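User: Please run a holo structure prediction.
Assistant: Happy to. Please share the sequence and the ligand.
User: Here you go; the ligand is magnesium ion.
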Amino acid sequence: MKISVVAPLYDEEGSLKELHRELSEVLQGREYEIIFVNDGSRDHSLEILREIAADDSHAGIISFRRNRGKSAAMASGFREAKGDILITIDADLQDDPHEIPNLIKKIEEGFDLVSGWKRKRRDPISKTIPSRLFNWVTAKLTGIPLHDFNCGLKAYKREVVENLDVYGEMHRYLPVLAKYAGFKIGEVSVHHRPRLHGRTKFGVSRFLHGFLDLLTVLFITRYTLRPLHLFGSFGIVTLFLGIAICAYLSVIWFMGTPIGSRPLFFLGILLILLGVQFFSIGLLGEMITRSSIKETPASEYLPPKQKL
Ligand code: UDP
Ligand code: MG
């Protein structure tokens, strides 16, 4: 079984040599490769990587001219990786390479994707508390019982990454996408270390973006092929309420009471308009789905094939 380690990195010059040393130590005796994906670093990361790769035939480099984000870095690494099992690891030394054998063991037990769980997280509290909330909400909404969706340390069977589209900032939700594709997801608690060199690349924007991406993931895993079910449901409820309100007011009006200045009247109109809009969006969604399905190969929207 060949192991491919994919390490996305952006300005991590202080950590790379040690990361490479620890990875080599842990993987010694196995067939492996380490793919460093330089995500447009502005420091000396690339020079250091070149030095590392010059001395070690296991190490390879992919380098972006500018910063494209962790997801893009991971996707490129996945495309180049030749291994049967792929491991992702943050390049900042916060993830401990010594956990890799545990992840591999769990994959060998039959799981398709194994996610690390930073049970004792060594990060500032401004990060750990929101991230708990985020993980709890994600677990509840997706029904996947993971504690730590966004752990950098994960192991994948090759088949899993071949079936996933990683773009935008979707790296946070790979377990959700994989589960939706029918893969078996496992979790292993891993040792986490404080950041010693450089600084974090995700500011507070991570929470807003993370939340929006959660909406995207929930939508694409449930409703992309049937948008009217989502929008139509909202539409029916609002339209029905609006019509009921306006019908009630009409009766009153016929009985001689003026209704023009009642707030309820405006609410009724608002709900009817909103209902019609929800419906229209749903129908447009259906039309887009229909035409895009005609143009895309079946493999894009049918469930992924399983290798038997
Ligand atoms: N990273 C990257 N591109 C980016 C942002 C981050 O390749 O645009 C890498 C980063 O160098 C690190 C990993 O992704 O190896 C995790 O980032 P970071 O440690 O900043 O995240 P945190 O641990 O704070 O969640
Ligand atoms: Mg980190």
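The chain has a mean pLDDT of 94.
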